[in-house]
Amino acid sequence: MRKNRILALSFLLIMAGLGLSKSGWARPGDAADPLVTKSYVMKVISENFNPMAQTLASVDSKLDDLLQRTVSAQKQLVPFSDVYQAEYSPAIARIYHLGLIKGYPDGTFRPNGPISRSEMATLLVRAKKLALTTRKIYFKDVYSGYWAYQYIATAKLSGLVTGYPDNTFRPTRQVTRGEAAALIYRAYAKSLIAVQSAPKYSDMTKHWARPYVDYLTKAGVIPVEAGGKFNPDAPATRLWVVEALAKLQ
């Protein structure tokens, strides 16, 4: 629709340049009027093609209204200020409306940002609909008042996550793609069904996370990566994790 409007305006500008305007105004590009303004175009239209002017004005108004309603609807579907691209919306919207994610206090989701071990544990507990435990756990770096304490405790006692040999959980540490694959597999192993073959990534031949990546790919939970590499030790993005979990809900 906008393309058609631009074509119509271009046509009218050409006609105006041929001398059809009776307004006496300077033509676009003249010293007196070096810029092509909307008011100039509308004046030319109204004086020479009044019926078209009325139609174009009506279309312009309807288009603006449609765009405003579209933006409003999208904000209701995905209320994050940094989520506008259409390909992000379905998975993020689904996970949001299931109550698995809430975003950040500033109203953003940060789809391309990393995800921490605390956030990953929280997502898995919510996705599996596990009741939060009241039992205590002990990690040297996770105190009882920590925002994700109950989620981490529930995930640990449910076998979804483990700590490190030094009895730490490292809650703020970024989760790698390989680790995320392992955690998702551990949570959903019993419900995964292989539907395709696994790709042969050159950087996964001897990697510890290969079995998990292979099976999640076979089940269609994670996409096949282009370029022949999986990059298992790169940080997993929030969007990557959410898209995988959305397919399992």
Structural features, described:
There is one protein chain. The chain has 249 residues and is an all-alpha fold. The protein folds into 2 domains: 2-76, no CATH class; 111-246, no CATH class. The protein has 9 helices and no strands. Helix 2 crosses helix 3 (50-77). The longest helix is centred in the N-terminal third of the chain and has 28 residues, at 50-77. The chain is elongated and about 80 Å long. Mean pLDDT is 82; it is low at 18-23.
Secondary structure blueprint with pairings:
Elements lengths: L1 H19 L17 H11 L1 H28 L11 H9 L19 H11 L21 H9 L19 H12 L21 H9 L19 H9 L3
Helix pairs in contact: 1-2, 2-3, 4-9, 5-6, 7-8
The chain-level structural class is mainly alpha
Strand percent estimate: under 5%
How far apart are the first and last residues' alpha carbons, in Å?
Answer: 37 Å
Q: Write down the secondary-structure element order.
A: HHHHHHHHH
Shape: elongated
Helix content: 40-55%
Taking all residues together, what is the mean pLDDT? 82
Q: Note the main sheet.
A: none
**Rg computed from alpha carbons, rounded to a whole number of angstroms:** 28 Å
Q: Number of helix segments?
A: 9
- How many domains make up the coordinates? 2
Low-confidence stretches: 18-23
**Count of strand segments:** 0
